[in-house]
Specification:
The chain is of the alpha/beta class. The protein has helices spanning 3-10, 23-34, 84-92, 103-121, 144-158, 173-179, 202-221, 236-244, 266-273, 284-289, 307-310, 336-348, 363-375, 391-396, 412-419, 432-435, 450-462, 464-481, 484-499; strands at 15-19, 42-46, 54-55, 58-62, 72-76, 98-100, 132-135, 163-167, 184-186, 193-194, 226-229, 248-252, 262-263, 278-281, 298-300, 322-327, 353-358, 382-385, 400-403, 423-427, 443-445. The strands form four sheets. It has a seven-stranded parallel beta sheet, with helices on both faces. A six-stranded mixed beta sheet has the order 3-4-2-1-5-6, covered by helices on one side. It has a six-stranded parallel beta sheet with strand order 18-17-16-19-20-21, with helices on both faces. The longest helix has 20 residues, at 202-221. The chain starts with a helix and ends with a helix.
């Protein structure tokens, strides 16, 4: 659907109800506002709203409790793959007046937002030549890669470098850039990854061809000295840099295969990666995940964490009930079910514990977790919470943090938990063994070995004094090795070596 057709349809109605208080919903709201539709005609609908809930200062109502009236139109404002449950809820409430946001409409709204932003903000604060142009693959303030990029921009500014971030599309990460006074522009683009068995679409190719021209313009306009590609998920920036003879860095932060993706063209992407002046990997594990990398160009630089935000001196394991925390997106890759199965065994042994799983995720997987909790009769001991913005406070209330992921690229949660004084129990795979020495700075267990995970937790419960000493060692190690200033200094030195300064 074209945006003009969409607006022509919705503006006829007295009330416009945006079903979905997320990224797509906020974009719909901003586009409605930009076309002069008044706020008092708009509201948000969700499956279940809390009391006095608002989003973008707009009221939020539950679908089953909203008083619909006679003249309204519902906008199903999520990505197409997530619309099934919403449409089902509308049908249950006998609501037929809705428009679902399809890929074409989302891209047009995104393009309109980007065009308006760049028109209003270009040339406003970017008056100097740019030392480093950061190519972000997302615009998401909960993304670890995005957070690391923001920290890097701040540290480079302190070092006297002028930076500019290029965002590929609409999202909530720009708020973080604004708060930290980091200059940014938008260039609508699509990543270079596909799911196995699928191909890069013609629409994606066209978007990226346009992006290439716009990035060329930015590099020329601001006399960019160096391009820094922030993840494996995007390629257009390095492609342009290679084409124009500009130095560039490829930052490899994730195992794309474990995430369920492949490069859309292996030979093409590896040619770009191995043409980089330096390839930075966030762990030795990530370097090993890509055997085609030119090892002579690879430097391992662990991600930096804000030590001041998470570090605190405290005593753990002082209460009768041990507090176990597992934060992070709830998907099979992260392995929350392993902890739940171990929890059932702990409960049978009479261990006094309380588990908090914190994070949103895959609805089917969350239901599987809830079923396991119910079947294990541990509903009073295991609690599921939505994603939070104050995770540092949750760490400070926890004794143990468990990391069951099979392929942590670095392990930001591990380091944050260690800095917070928690003892970390992690799966012996991915980059986690690079951060934890078993029995010295934390505990490791064999992935999917529920018995071994249970035994590690029992060991902590039975010898709290020893576990507290191990937690303190982990905290010291994390502070010494993974502070963001240490990481930024290493990357700054790489910049200097490339630019000959």
């Amino acid at each position: 659907m074209k945006e003009t057709d969409f607006l022509r349809e919705v503006e006829k109605h007295k009330k416009i109800c945006i079903y979905g208080a997320g990224m797509v919903g906020s974009l719909v709201l901003l586009r409605l506002r930009s076309f002069g539709i008044e706020d008092d005609r708009i509201c948000f609908i969700v499956s279940k709203a809390s009391d006095n809930q608002t989003y973008f200062d707009m009221p939020v109502y539950s679908v089953g409790e909203y008083e619909w009236g006679e003249d309204f139109k519902v906008i199903v404002a999520t990505l197409p793959k997530n619309q099934g449950q919403i449409i089902s809820n509308l049908k249950k409430n006998n609501i037929k007046e809705y428009i679902a946001v399809d890929d074409e409409l989302f891209e047009e709204m995104e393009r309109g937002y980007i065009s308006d932003f760049n028109r209003d903000n270009r040339e406003v604060s970017i008056n100097d030549d740019i030392d480093v142009l950061y190519m972000s693959s997302d615009n998401n303030y909960t993304s670890g890669a995005f957070l690391c990029m923001v920290d890097l921009c701040k540290e480079m500014r302190e070092a006297g470098l002028k930076t500019l971030v290029v965002l590929p599309g609409y999202g909530n990460g720009e708020k973080l850039l604004q708060e930290n006074k980091i200059d940014y522009l938008f260039v609508q683009s699509r990543g270079g990854l596909v799911e196995p068995g699928k191909e890069f679409s013609e629409r994606e190719r066209i978007i990226n061809e346009t992006a290439v021209s716009e990035i060329e313009r930015i590099i020329r306009t601001y006399h960019v000295k160096l391009v820094h590609n922030n993840t494996n998920h995007t390629y257009v920036g390095p492609y342009v840099a290679r084409k124009m003879g500009i130095p560039y860095i490829w930052h490899s932060r994730e195992n794309i295969k474990e995430q369920g993706f492949l490069f859309f063209n292996d030979d093409f992407i590896y040619e770009i990666i191995n043409g980089a002046n330096r390839i930075i990997t966030v762990s030795r594990y990530i370097g090993d995940c890509y055997p085609k990398l030119d090892k002579t160009r690879v430097s391992c630089v662990y991600d930096g964490v804000d030590t001041k935000k998470y570090y605190c001196e405290r005593e753990i394991l002082k209460n009768k009930t041990i507090q176990i925390l597992m934060p992070g997106i709830m998907i099979p890759l992260k392995g929350q079910l392993q902890l739940i199965k171990a929890a059932k065994m702990l409960n049978d042994l009479g261990v006094d514990f309380d588990i908090s799983l914190v994070g949103s995720g895959d609805a089917d997987y969350i239901r599987e977790i809830e079923d396991e909790v119910k079947n294990g009769n541990i509903e009073k001991r295991v609690h599921l919470y939505e994603r939070v913005n104050n995770l540092e406070e949750w760490y400070r209330d926890a004794d143990i943090v468990v990391v069951c992921s099979r392929s942590e690229a670095f392990g930001r949660v591990t380091v944050e938990a260690q800095l917070s004084g928690c003892i970390v129990v992690g799966a012996d795979c991915g980059a986690t063994p690079e951060l934890i020495c078993d029995g010295d700075s934390g505990y490791l267990y064999e992935l999917n070995n529920i018995e071994m995970l249970k035994n590690k937790l029992v060991d902590i419960y039975n010898d709290k004094e020893k576990a507290s000493v191990i937690a303190q060692k982990g905290q010291v190690k994390a502070k010494e090795l993974y502070d963001k200033e240490i990481s930024s200094k290493k990357i700054y030195d790489i910049y200097r070596s490339i630019l000959g300064e």
